[in-house]
């Protein structure tokens, strides 16, 4: 008896972290946006890093239902931030439909990093997120213990996403307790990233979201000038190779994880 071939579930992905507002995308931004839905990208989140980019992000999100935005003051751009920008952020969360506050955090990679100013800025933005009831998008480099400490002492309960997660399994569990998802992107595609790939394989699928961090964090063997959100599928394929669940289950879970934490219907 003839049995029709079973149709595989359609793969739909969500890029939980990309910087499509950066100038490097001025020539191909429109092409990327018009291609996303066709190839199965259900949505993207663009986190703001400096106050001067916020207006454009809001305009882009208003025009595109598949583009979601966060606004924040990134720890690596301290020289561009002013005290007034914190007040601007307080106003922005009251009049704009934002998905999160971010990209915020602590970056201790450089020995001469101004940790005191970074911490002050981070704590202020956590308080704004608390008041607004919004999740946060975290930038964490060599600072997991301090981030976890401030989440605890500031009693932050709205969760968010730890961008480009590279901490330990024990730290991952503590982030989970605060309601956070963990972002995995291009770094996971590199065979030499043994520790990171083990984490991606062993963490509960409910903890994981996919990201590209475009234009940065290019996937393994990608040779073009800059990364794009369209490469979310290469990151997804690496995650599928590392885990035991079927591909469609991983796609559904990571996409729903992103949408759930960001309050996207």
TrEMBL record:
One GO CC term on file: cytosol
Record-linked InterPro entries: DNase_TatD-rel_CS, Metal_Hydrolase, TatD-like
Keyword Metal-binding: yes
Xref: Pfam families: TatD_DNase
UniProt GO molecular function: hydrolase activity, acting on ester bonds; metal ion binding
Superkingdom in the source lineage: Bacteria
CDD domains for the chain: TatD_DNAse
Protein's UniProt keywords contain Hydrolase: yes
Keywords: Hydrolase, Metal-binding
The family this protein is said to belong to: Belongs to the metallo-dependent hydrolases superfamily. TatD-type hydrolase family.
PANTHER family in the cross-refs: D-AMINOACYL-TRNA DEACYLASE, HYDROLASE
Protein name as catalogued: TatD family deoxyribonuclease
Lineage start: Bacteria, Pseudomonadati, Pseudomonadota, Gammaproteobacteria, Kangiellales
């Amino acid at each position: 008896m003839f049995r029709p071939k079973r149709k595989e579930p359609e793969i739909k992905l969500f890029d939980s972290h990309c910087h499509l507002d950066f100038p490097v995308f001025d020539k191909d931004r429109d092409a990327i946006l018009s291609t996303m839905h066709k190839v199965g990208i259900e949505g993207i989140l663009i986190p703001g890093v400096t106050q001067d980019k916020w207006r454009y992000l809001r305009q882009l999100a208003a025009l595109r239902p598949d583009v979601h935005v966060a606004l924040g003051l990134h720890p690596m751009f301290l020289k561009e931030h002013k005290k007034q920008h914190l007040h601007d952020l307080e106003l922005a969360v009251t009049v704009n439909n934002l998905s999160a506050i971010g990209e915020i955090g602590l970056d201790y990679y450089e020995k001469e990093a101004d940790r005191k100013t970074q911490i002050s800025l981070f704590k202020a933005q956590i308080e704004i997120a608390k008041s607004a009831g919004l999740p946060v998008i975290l930038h964490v480099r060599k600072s997991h213990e301090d981030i976890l400490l401030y989440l605890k002492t500031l009693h932050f309960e709205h969760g968010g996403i730890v961008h480009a997660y590279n901490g330990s399994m024990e730290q991952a569990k503590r982030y989970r307790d605060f309601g956070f998802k963990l972002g995995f992107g291009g770094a996971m595609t590199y065979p030499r990233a043994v520790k990171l790939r083990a984490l991606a394989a062993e963490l509960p699928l409910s903890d994981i979201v996919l990201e590209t961090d475009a234009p940065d964090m290019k996937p393994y063997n990608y040779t073009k000038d800059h990364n794009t959100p369209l490469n979310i599928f290469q990151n997804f394929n690496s995650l599928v190779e590392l885990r035991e669940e079927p591909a469609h289950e991983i796609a559904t879970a990571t996409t729903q994880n992103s949408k759930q934490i960001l309050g996207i219907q």
